[in-house]
Design a protein that fits this description.
By secondary structure, the protein is α/β, with parallel strands linked by helices. It contains 14 helices and 16 strands. A hairpin with a 2-residue loop joins β15 and β16. The structure holds N-(iminomethyl)-L-glutamic acid (NIG) and fe (iii) ion (FE). The site of N-(iminomethyl)-L-glutamic acid (NIG) has 13 residues, from α3.
Length: about 425
C-alpha cells in the first residue's frame, strides 16, 4: 500500500511543471518555452519529496489520509521554488556612497581602478567578524526566501586573502545550515587580485592554487569561478587557473564578457564550464561558438539587473542566444556593487523587457536551467515526482501575470523540502 500524501495542494489554476524537456541537458532553443502547464491541477508531497503532479481529474483520492494536510490553492499558480544560481551572498558593509558617484557619471571600472568597488567591500569584509558576516548572510537569505528562492548559489570573493576567503566559505555553509534555503558554495577567490598583489594577477592566482584550492573539498564547495575582465584577470591567466581547478575536481564557472568581448566565455566552455555568467558583450556568433564548445551543457547565466544598475545600455542579447541554441538561465547577481537586489522576479521582468525573453522562457531560466547552472537539476527546478518538494504558491491565476506586475513579489507561500514555511 502506498503511503498517504503528507501535503496536498489542490485546485491550482495552473501548475507550471517545467517538465517535459530532455533529461540529460538544460533546456535550449524551442524547448526553453515548451514545458508542460497543467490547468486545474494538484501537487502532492510525501515527506521531503514530490510524490505526484497532475490534473485534479487524476488525483488518487485513495492516497488522502487523515493526516494529509490539504491546501486549496484555487485561483493560484503553483510552480517550483526559484533557483538563484549566482550570488555574492557574504560581504561586509555596503556601497551606497559609490552609488552616488555612479549616478554622477563615474564608471564601474574607474571606481575599481581607484581602489574602490570590489576592493572597498574587501576592506569592510576583512574588518567584519564571523558573526557579523553570518547575521548579514542570514538576513539576505531570509529576503531571498520571501521572494520564493529555495536554492541559492553563494560565492566567496570579498576576502582576497587565503584566510578570509576560507572564512567566507565557512560563513556561507553555516548560513545554509541555520535556515531552510539550500546553499551551494562557489569559490571566487579570483574575483580581482588581492590588494597585496596589485599589478601581479598571475602571482595572486598562484597563491590561490597553492594555499586555498588544496584546502577545499569539491563535495562542499563544488565550483571555482573567476572574473575575466580588464582590471581583473586575462583570458590566458583565467584558462590556466580554471584548468588546474578542473584537475582538482571542481566544476568551473566564469564571469566573462561583462564589459568587453575578450573571449572568456568561449575559453571556459571549451574547458567544460557548467556556466558562463554575465555575457552582456557576447555576440550572437560568439554564443553559437559557446553553444558548440559547451555541447549544450554550458549554461549562459544572464544578469539583467546589472546593466540596469550600472546604467549601461548594453544587455546580453538573450533572444539571439536562444536562437543560437545556447541554454540560458537568469539570476540577480546579488552583490553590494553592481546589483544590491534580491528580487529575482524583477530580473525575470527586465529579461523579458530588455533581452527579448518570453515569459515561458524566463520562467525556465529561473528554475530548471538555473538548477542546471549549479548542478542541482536532479534535486530541484521542476515539479516532478522524486524531486525535492520545493514549490511556490503564487497570488496570481495565470503565469502571464508574472512579468506583467513590474517589481511585485507574487509569492504567497513557500514550501521547502515538503515543509510549508509560514
Ligand atoms: O558579478 N563582475 C564582478 N563581480 C560582481 C560585482 C562585484 C562588486 O562590484 O562588488 C558581479 O557583478
Ligand atoms: Fe557576479
Amino acid at each position: 500500500m502506498p503511503q498517504p500524501y503528507s501535503l496536498l495542494f489542490c485546485h491550482a489554476a495552473q501548475v507550471l511543471t517545467l517538465a517535459g524537456g530532455p533529461p540529460d541537458k538544460p533546456l535550449a532553443g524551442t524547448d526553453l518555452a515548451d514545458w508542460r502547464i497543467i490547468e486545474h491541477g494538484y501537487v502532492a508531497c510525501q515527506g521531503e519529496a514530490i510524490a505526484a503532479v497532475g490534473p485534479m481529474s487524476e488525483l488518487d483520492a485513495g492516497r488522502i489520509g487523515p493526516d494529509t494536510r490539504i491546501v486549496d490553492v484555487s485561483g493560484r499558480v503553483l510552480m517550483p521554488g526559484l533557483v538563484e544560481c549566482h550570488t555574492h551572498l557574504v560581504f561586509g558593509g555596503n556601497r551606497a556612497d559609490e552609488f552616488q558617484r555612479k549616478l554622477q557619471g563615474e564608471s564601474y571600472l574607474d571606481i575599481l581602478a581607484a581602489g574602490g568597488g570590489i576592493l572597498s567591500t574587501v576592506r569592510k569584509t576583512r574588518a567584519a567578524s564571523d558573526e557579523e558576516l553570518l547575521q548579514s548572510a542570514l538576513h539576505h537569505l531570509e529576503g531571498f526566501r520571501r521572494y520564493g528562492v529555495t536554492t541559492l548559489e553563494a560565492k566567496s570573493g570579498y576576502g582576497l586573502d587565503a584566510a578570509t576567503e576560507l572564512r567566507l566559505l565557512q560563513v556561507a555553509q553555516e548560513a545554509g545550515r541555520r535556515q531552510p534555503v539550500r546553499v551551494v558554495s562557489t569559490f571566487l577567490g579570483a574575483h580581482v587580485p588581492g590588494p597585496e598583489y596589485k599589478g601581479r594577477p598571475a602571482d595572486y592566482l598562484d597563491m590561490l592554487l597553492a594555499e586555498v584550492l588544496p584546502e577545499l573539498n569539491p563535495t562542499e564547495v563544488p565550483f571555482v569561478d573567476i572574473f575575466c575582465e580588464e582590471g581583473a584577470f586575462s583570458v590566458d591567466d583565467s584558462r590556466r587557473y580554471l584548468q588546474r581547478a578542473r584537475e582538482l575536481g571542481f566544476g568551473l564557472k566564469i564571469h566573462a564578457e561583462q564589459l568587453h568581448e575578450l573571449g572568456g566565455c568561449q575559453m571556459a566552455a571549451e574547458l567544460g564550464a557548467i556556466s558562463v555568467d554575465h555575457c552582456d558583450y557576447l555576440s550572437a556568433e560568439g554564443a553559437a561558438q559557446v553553444a558548440a564548445a559547451g555541447q549544450g551543457r554550458t549554461v549562459a547565466v544572464l544578469l539583467p539587473l546589472v546593466p540596469l544598475y550600472l546604467r549601461q545600455e548594453k544587455y546580453a542579447p538573450g533572444r539571439q542566444f536562444i536562437e543560437a541554441g545556447l541554454p540560458v538561465a537568469l539570476s540577480t547577481d546579488f552583490n553590494p556593487g553592481s546589483c544590491p537586489s534580491k528580487n529575482l522576479w524583477l530580473a525575470l521582468q527586465v529579461a523579458c523587457l530588455k533581452m527579448g525573453l518570453t515569459p515561458r522562457e524566463a520562467l525556465a531560466a529561473v528554475t530548471l536551467n538555473a538548477a542546471w547552472a549549479i548542478g542541482q537539476q536532479a534535486n530541484c527546478g521542476s515539479l516532478e515526482p522524486g524531486k525535492r518538494a520545493d514549490l511556490l504558491v503564487l497570488s496570481v491565476p495565470d503565469y502571464r501575470e508574472l512579468p506583467y506586475w513590474l517589481g511585485e513579489n507574487p509569492v504567497a507561500q513557500v514550501v521547502i523540502g515538503g515543509q510549508l514555511e509560514e
